[in-house]
Amino acid sequence: MAIFADLQNCVTRSLQLKAYQSSSSFPNLQHLSLAHCRKFTDKGLLYLGSGKGCHKLIYLDLSGCIQISVDGFRNIANGCSRIQDLLINNMPSLTDRCIQALVEKCQQIMSVVFLDSPHLSDTTFKALAECKLVKVSIEGNNQITDLSFELMSKCCPYIRHIHMADCQKITDASLQMISPLKHILVLNVADCIRISDGGVRPFVQGSSGSKLRELNLTNCFHVTDASVTEIAQRCHELTYLTLRHCENVTDAGIEALGNMSSLISIDISGTSISDMSLRALGHHGKIKELSVSECKNISDTGIQEFCQGTKSLEYCHVSYCPQLTDEAVKAMAFHCHTLTSVNIAGCPKMTDTCIQYLAAACHYLHFLDVSGCIHLTDKALKYLWKGCKQLQILKMLYCRNITKQAVLKYTAKLETQEHSDADPPSWLGYDRDGNILTFTSAPE
Fold first, then answer.
1. Which residues lie closer than 8 Å to 21 by C-beta, 6 or more apart?
2. Where does residue 207 rank: exposed (0-12), middle (13-18), buried (19+ CB within 10 A)?
3. Contact, 112 vs 139, CB < 8 A?
4. Is the pTM of this model over 0.90?
5. Which residues contact 309 (CB under 8 A, 6 or more apart)?
6. pLDDT digits (tens, 9 = 90+) for 59-97
């Protein structure tokens, strides 16, 4: 019988005793989370490694345990050689030597997640090459280079999930080297700003292109319509696509995606697309999640045409599109009754009428952000209170016409609410009356 022990966020000094009890009393312990247990030291890991209860451990979470040294990892390795899933997030003290000490004895590791570990380098991947990895997640790292992808291509033939976001030294060569791998289902290279068509196209043309399920290219601003067209032609199983802030992606690329029947989620926020793209994406009618925030060239007409063809939409974020009006929300509400998450923050033309539309038709709404919708009044909250019984999260920052009294009256039962009646900050791009601000350069 498997045993799960979740001790995360424990900070008492008695935790080492708990570790000793776990190691001697639970011979079938398989899953252990010590996340953010700051008082748990190398000695506690010695208890775990030397006791009778951790030899079957297959999942270990040490996220945030910045006090653990190389010796602590060595202690774990000595007694827990069957670990398969390793999670170590928010640990800036994590080094290559820690991973080397662990992998020396734990060579059955299949999944590693190291988010916010900036000091790891290619040396970590050299150590992990001894394991049969199927999942790698690393984020916020300036040390790892294309060499790590070369090691994956040679030593991890069955890898399925690659998440290497915000790794600034990764280039197109990385994607070219993993293109022969046959089993990749998830690829996330968000914020890897050196990635361009020269890497994306060879990858999707490779052995995993036709099997790929999720692709995230956020802030890969060198990527163009050439890559998007290739994705549309090759990635027949793709369900989630993120092209957020890929500023060189235009209608020409997005229109090609309109024929992808597998696509259910797309994020094209911060691109230069227009209503033409929304019309194309609405054709097959299967998209459940749409994000077009910061798209200055779309209009109410584009949202209307998209929603008319997409009845199963659940998530629609159109924030920071100051040109949109109540008519856009009317289309969402009338055609997409299954909406659970709507974001219209930074849309100064919205009025209480748009909230009335949502409350009348979208009874499954769980999340709503109306921050910066300066014309909303207390009526909006009354509409939501009457019609959206499942609403849990409501954000109303910079809504100067919504009173604190109404917030207290109509949002008391919500899980989370945020409200302020301050004027909109200048970064929203408009003033307290909704007039668009124009910024002039200071004279030299």
1. none
2. middle
3. no
4. yes
5. 282, 283, 284, 285
6. 999 999 999 999 999 988 888 889 999 999 999 999 999
